[in-house]
Amino acid sequence: MSVDQTHFRTALLDSAAAVPSGLSDGAGRPAGGRFSVYRNNVAVSLTEALEDSFPVILKLLGEENFRAIMGVFLRAHPPKSPVLARYGADLPGFLEAFPPLAHLPYLADVARLELALIRAYHAADSRPADASILQSLSPDALLQTRFTLAPALELLRSPWPIHAIWRFNSEEAAPKPSPGAQDVLIIRPDFDPEPVLLPPGAAPFIAALREGQPLGPAHDAASEAAAEAQAEFDLTQCLSLLLSAKAITDIHSGTTP
Amino acid sequence: MFDADQPHNRLPPLPGVGYKPQHFSAILADAGPVGWLEIHAENYMGDGGRPLAQLRHLSNHFPISVHGVGLSIGGEAALDPDHLARLKHLCDWLNPASFSEHLAWSTHDSAYLNDLLPLPYTDATLTRVADHVDQLQEVLGRRMLLENPSSYLAFDESTWSETGFLAEISRRTGCGLLLDVNNVFISATNLGYSPQSYIDDFPLMAVGEIHLGGHDEDEDDHGAPLLIDSHGREVADPVWALLDYTLARSGARPLLIEWDADVPEWPALAAEATRARHHLAQAPA
């Protein structure tokens, strides 16, 4: 009797399913528990890949819960590609919709932060632009200037204090998180991605720049958003952050379209 | 069939190790007897960042073998064109000394199962695998090495021996073979045949690389020994002995130490490579 890969795959992912017949131990006896070697390899290796990619989710859930929940996840969402660094893109949505985790509504955004860190780690390299040109521009030209941002840059906005939660579970001596929305920018000045907490207005500002809007409208959007939060947007501070993070890779000044 | 005049690979007949990023500085400071490095292709498929920067740097100092673990050459469906393109991109960028993959499947119905799953050795499987090897060699523009699996069970429907199956694929496609001696020992123990007979039957002329790794010991439902291919410890003594048996017949070949789980500090891995060098030194030229 022949065992096709559809049959094999189904039995691999469902440990309650019968071991396919037609498999033996080489001495004529049915394979039986030998099939579990493959079942274990699949479940354990995929769970380990998720542990590597989501260390903060692992810490928040605890090892036992994490493994049990990932066992459900990996069967519902096996990887779509052999590039395992990309595995888990479906995890935030899964965590959001998983009823036993309804009391931990911030988990999905923390998982999104961890995914963004991995994307940043593997993103294309880039060279920072020479910022000295900004000094020579008239105020009008400056407002019309557009920026190209580094491919490694990642922007996250959450109603939860995801930066504080990430730090508290990643760094020794980080302060305890307190409630509140947080915007996070992931920068990668060289090879190591780093999540930076953004002040009010900075997230819409960076999002507008990334969309290709000139500095003027981006600044307006940022000031408006900051005002809603009863704060003031600090343009100089935000530009220095981007420059020191080597996050601006090209400057298209308004004078030379 | 791919152009058979092209050499299988340009790896030297020296010890190599599976490269782990935590050993980057140690390898550059003192590689010991290690003459080449092997990477898993799927770990170097990002757009940039540290992995590719380190790999580019290492490739200036060592011949690199690219070892694919996820193409699913034995898959019933067509090869994944996206993954083929990623492999081609990596090989074109790196121009490695060798490319190898496995006689196994891992993807079905667009689910990648992250394990090297077994195949029945039938005429139908042979035609399919040979077609996939042909396709891969055409896409990459190079000959590849195909590796023998570690087996925990056998298919009743198989009509070929594993050695005959691999020899026939090599004959049809012109591909070379990667002989994993630890896998031979594991499969022979698990399925109850002689590992020396397997080596006797293996087409050693086609072998472009040998793998060695550690395994774990378990038992099956009947208390029979069941060895697990864990790559998480030193190479076992009987596997070194089987290596000597092989090298006496094949001559020296590029010889890789694989250590993928519970990866030790560099000196422990270098010590395994030193041991490999002693065994290579005993081999006929």
Automatic annotation (TrEMBL), chain A:
Residues in Putative DNA-binding domain copies: 5-95
Pfam family, any one: DUF2063
Family annotation (InterPro entries): DUF2063 (IPR018640), DUF2063_N_sf (IPR044922)
Protein name as catalogued: Putative DNA-binding domain-containing protein
Organism listed in the record: Roseovarius nubinhibens (strain ATCC BAA-591 / DSM 15170 / ISM)
UniProtKB/TrEMBL annotation, chain B:
Domain of life: Bacteria
Source organism (scientific name): Roseovarius nubinhibens (strain ATCC BAA-591 / DSM 15170 / ISM)
Protein name: UPF0276 protein ISM_13980
PANTHER family: UPF0276 PROTEIN HI_1600
Gene3D superfamilies: Divalent-metal-dependent TIM barrel enzymes (3.20.20.150)
Protein family (similarity comment): Belongs to the UPF0276 family.
